[in-house]
Specification:
heterotrimer; A mainly alpha; B mainly alpha; C mainly alpha; A: mainly alpha; 9 helices; C: mainly alpha; 8 helices
Chain lengths: 222, 72, 251
């Protein structure tokens, strides 16, 4: 049972680390956005402090949209996804393993670089901590939602912007709570309520999103 | 009746532009929905009829061809 | 319990049901919308704070309320389709989606036209406005996903999953007012014990809500009929129907 999870997980990680250039792309994109913003809006420390959390979150979301294709597309194109689905193993675990691997590859680097971004955008220590925690809880939600969107559109030859459009409505509440958490931190208030809401959204998604993804993949395989 | 004159009714207490703009756009969109539904059906019926005639013509041509083959 | 419903999984039964319901609902919708709008625009007293600008309520509130109900109706159709594998349910879903999108657009537009004189800006990033905008994106997502597939059977299932995922968003819309509590005024008529609006103003509003609901239902039925005809055009009963319609038109 867990062997399946680890098997798929290890395979996906190995595949991801074989294409190191592609691995670094979303991260570079994130750095570019973070560098461009102060130049566009002006280097005033106050304004950077105010818009910083939002900029980092939006950049993280956009970067994740870049790396979303890796979830299922290649496995779908070379047929290995179909093989896995026909293997008779529980698909929930399979999908969960793929999502976990995707999250590790896509977002752990982002999380590790968040302190750097916080310094670049003049965040105070409490703000940086709140930002880090909101990203820690929120990015798995991004991966889970990306899995549904990619599962639905993997069979569409010219998907293009479709997965992003599908993800957008679900992302907006996340963004609202995440940025309001950092805002509360900036004002010296408690930000646990916002984090609790993000955590709740994450747990609901963790329970339901893999099921939806499995169904979506089954529909796409026809 | 809440208004004394027609001009007053149109002016809507100075908010005429906003009131009439919202009602105008809303009812236009609703009218558009009605027309689109009706027009879609018309096009569909036409297509289905054309397809039926085409099938009929193919059938006729086939039987004629078969008859010609018989006579040859 | 719902066994009687299952006959409408057949496209022909659903088609004739639509045919029977359309005249009634069209009549209700026309009657109510005309009565409610005329009453609201001409006879309802002006608001003591907002003057005559408040009359936008008679189109804005029905559209805003029903844009969410329509989404729920669409999601129920999607759920029925996914659980019972009905083709007609998916057809109903995709028939409802553009109507819902149009109603959401009306709600947004009238909201903007109401916001300009009241708040001084066409668009304010207030919770309810934002949620309504998300709702529009949700409708667009379902429609775009459905259109992306060539195989409409597959398209129905995929769009159905998307519609159900979006349902999570509808409670967020509903409770967003309490959560973020910003510029937008609170709900005026759902406070059942003591409505915050005069009865003279309330009646036209209720009538228009009924009229708008009947309108959405009618148009959805019309679009469902079209969808059934499109998907079943090779069936004998459709062919017969189309040809008998033609004969009727020629008379």
């Amino acid at each position: 049972m867990t062997t399946l999870f680890y098997g798929v997980f290890k395979r996906d990680l190995a595949l991801a680390f074989r294409q190191k250039a592609e691995l670094a792309q979303p991260l570079l994109f994130l750095l570019i956005v973070i560098t461009l913003f102060p130049i566009a809006v002006g280097p005033g420390p106050d304004i950077l402090q105010r818009i910083g959390p939002g900029v980092i979150w939006v950049a993280a979301i956009l970067a994740s949209l870049l790396g979303m294709d890796r979830l299922f597309k290649e496995d779908f194109n070379d047929g290995s996804l179909e093989q896995m689905m026909l293997s008779g193993h529980p698909l929930y675990q399979l999908v969960l393993a793929k999502i976990t691997a995707h999250w590790l590859v896509c977002f752990i680097p982002v999380l590790l670089l968040t302190p750097l971004f916080s310094i670049l955008l003049n965040q105070t220590l409490t703000m940086a901590v709140a930002l880090f925690l909101s990203l820690l809880l929120g990015t798995p939600l991004l991966s889970l939602m990306a899995a549904i969107a990619m599962g639905l559109t993997v069979g569409v030859p010219k998907g293009g912007l479709l997965p992003s459009l599908l993800m957008l409505p679900v992302l907006i509440p996340l963004l609202i709570f995440a940025t309001s958490a950092v805002e509360s931190a900036a004002m010296g208030l408690s930000y646990t309520p916002q984090l609790a809401v993000i955590g709740a959204m994450f747990l609901v998604a963790l329970a339901l999103a893999p099921l939806a993804t499995v169904y979506a993949l089954k529909v796409s395989q026809h | 009746m809440n208004f004394d004159s027609f001009a007053e009714f149109i002016a809507m207490g100075g908010y005429g532009l906003y009131v009439w703009l919202s009602f105008g756009v809303s009812f236009s969109v609703m009218l558009l929905l009605v027309i689109a539904g009706w027009y879609e059906r018309k096009i569909l019926d036409k297509e289905i009829r054309q397809e039926a005639y085409r099938q009929q013509r193919i059938q006729v041509a086939r039987t004629q061809a078969a008859q010609r083959k018989d006579t040859v | 319990m719902f066994m009687w419903l299952h006959q409408y999984a057949k496209t022909e039964a659903a088609y004739s049901l639509c045919n029977r319901l359309i005249p009634w609902f069209a009549a209700i919708s026309m009657g109510c919308l005309v009565t409610g709008t005329v009453w609201g625009l001409l006879f309802a007293p002006s608001d003591y704070q907002q003057g005559d600008a408040f009359r936008i309520i008679y189109i804005h509130v029905p559209a805003a309320m029903l844009s969410m109900s329509t989404y729920i109706a669409m999601a129920v159709a999607a759920l029925v389709g996914l659980v019972w594998q009905w083709r007609t349910a998916f057809m109903a879903m995709i028939a409802i989606a553009p109507v819902g999108a149009a109603v959401t657009f009306i709600a947004l537009f009238t909201g903007a036209a109401w916001g300009k004189p009241m708040w001084g800006a066409w668009w304010v990033w207030d919770a309810r406005l934002t949620s309504e905008l998300i709702l529009l994106f949700l409708y667009c997502g379902v429609i775009a996903l459905y259109c992306a597939f060539d195989d409409k059977q597959q398209a129905g299932k995929a769009a159905g999953v998307m519609a159900l995922v979006g349902v999570v968003n509808v409670p967020v819309i509903h409770f967003s007012v309490q959560w973020w509590n910003t510029l937008h005024q609170g709900a005026t008529i759902t406070r059942l014990d003591k409505p915050a609006i005069a009865t003279q103003m309330l009646w036209p509003l209720l009538i228009n809500i009924v009229g708008m609901a009947a309108f959405i239902f009618t148009i959805s039925c019309v679009r469902l009929k079209n969808e059934i005809i499109r998907r079943e055009q090779r069936r004998p009963w459709v062919q017969q129907l189309v040809h008998s319609n033609e004969a009727k038109n020629e008379l």
